[in-house]
Amino acid sequence: MLTTALIFAATYLVVALGRLPFLRLDRAGAALLGAALMVATGGLSLDEAYRAIDFGTVTLLLGMMLIVAHLRLSGFFTLVTGFVARRARGPLFLLGAIILITGVLSAFLVNDAVCLMLAPLVIEMTRQLGRRPLPYLLALAMASNIGSVATITGNPQNMMIGSFSHLPYASFAAALTPVAAAGLIVLFLMVAALHRPDFFSGSDPASAALRPRVHPALLASALSATGLAIAGFFAGIPPAEVAIVLGALLLLYPMKPQRVYREIDWSLLLLFVGLFIVLASAEKALLTPALRAVVADAGLVHVPVLTVLAAVLSNLVSNVPAVLVLAPFLKGIAEPDRAWLVLAMASTFAGNFTILGSIANLIVVEQARRQAVNIGFWAYFRIGAPLTLATLALGAWWLSQ
Fold it and tell me: Exposure check for the chain: N or C terminus, fewer CB within 10 A?
């Protein structure tokens, strides 16, 4: 038991820090090493480790990555931002358009991928319009987190929750889309209020001219697959089945599969596999009936309590590991459907608290740095902290009804 506890703690420490100091071990490597050590020390047998992996979540994530990769290679994201740039009607219109487009795309596609595609395009567009990129990039990062809460396919932690809870895609979306929509409105008001000089002074240039490079055949097939995937999700077909079948069919034509494979975040898939095994071993050794009783007495059945716990834990170890830690305690809880929805809402909204709160934030920061735009901790926190508190309160209130 002690060995299992030490491996579990060490793995989560590296996952929280991002990498192991003085060594090259990153999050995915730590998860893989932790899983291997759990098997090597007898925490789980190899067969138990295989069974611990939730292949539904991994398959869904891989399928969505394939679809998003084809959208990117087709020029879809450049086409969307180019459309907005040509119709820019002032800074507030541009801010609203970026928040709306990012939120909607993040609801159905993986939000990390949306940020990866849109961040450099937003920088190019705002510079052509003579605007400071910073407030628009902050809006992009935060809108991707808020929008992604709406559906099971919005982000990795929601994918896990969808797999664990077996909530229908349509029911999940119906419960959390209003919260996401309200959150995007709050974001718009906060960014505009806290960056008034960027939106209420200066002249308004006519428009920007982004030149999208579009692959027509690939765009048609990628959009068709995306539309069919969304229809399949709402029709009640298992999301993993829909995503992987359509993602695999896209490999037939017209893009070389090797180019698509380069777009896949293989390390994220590896992180998931490793964490599933680490958590299963810890659950087997450490999750005693007494501990379950203590956690049950802590009041997870109450929406505010679970909201606060999920938000705090998500900022300590990141949202994906937080969901994996809390998931065993929600199985068999009173009103489990509501508890799963609260966990999805809180773990996702918590990502906006600081610049380190989600992978989407870090992607935007890194993309900005490459183009000489600095997003500092305080510049993010002065909006992210109050936004997180406001959206968490709003989400908890909505799910308590």
Answer: C
Q: Mean pLDDT of residues grouped by 10 in the chain (401 residues)? A: 89 78 83 95 94 92 94 91 81 94 95 91 89 95 97 95 94 97 98 92 59 86 96 95 96 92 90 90 77 64 91 86 87 85 96 88 89 91 96 97 85
DSSP notation for 237-254: --HHHHHHHHHHHGGGSS
Amino acid at 188: F
Q: Which runs of E-coded beta strand occur in 190-229?
A: none
Q: CA-to-CA distance for 232 and 228, rounded, in angstroms?
A: 6
7/378 Cα distance (integer angstroms) = 34
Instruction: Please state the length of the chain.
Output: 401
Residue 387 contacts residue 352 (beta carbons within 8 Å): yes
Cβ-based neighbours of 121, under 8 Å, separated by 6 or more: 77, 78, 81, 210
Beta bridge partners of 26: 19
| DSSP code at position 153 | T
Per-residue H/E/C for 298-314? CCCCCHHHHHHHHHHHH
Of 75, 62, 56, residue with least CA distance to 162: 56
pTM of the model: 0.89
- C-alpha 154/C-alpha 358 separation (Å) is 13
Report which of 284, 268, 367 is spatially closest to residue 319, judged by C-alpha positions. 268
* Residue 89 burial (CB count, 10 A): 12
Structure tokens at 336: 């489990």
314 and 347 in contact (C-beta within 8 Å)?
Answer: yes
Contact between 33 and 313 (Cβ < 8 Å): no
| Tokens read off for 25 | 């071990």
